[in-house]
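Bumping my old thread because nobody answered last time. Still need a sequence for this structure:
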């Protein structure tokens, strides 16, 4: 049996904690990037 995937999974918004966890950075680092305009190059 194959697991059902939520069709909106890739379209949902994530919060600061989830984003920081996904990028392996702290929430504070994300906040600093937003204010200073820096960040990780992808």
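Sorry it took so long. Here it is:
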């Amino acid at each position: 049996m194959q697991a059902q995937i939520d069709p909106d999974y890739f379209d949902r918004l994530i919060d600061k904690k989830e984003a920081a966890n996904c990028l392996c950075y702290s929430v504070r680092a994300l906040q600093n990037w937003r204010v200073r305009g820096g960040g990780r190059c992808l």
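Residues 14 and 20 are 10 Å apart (CA to CA). Let me know if any region looks off to you.
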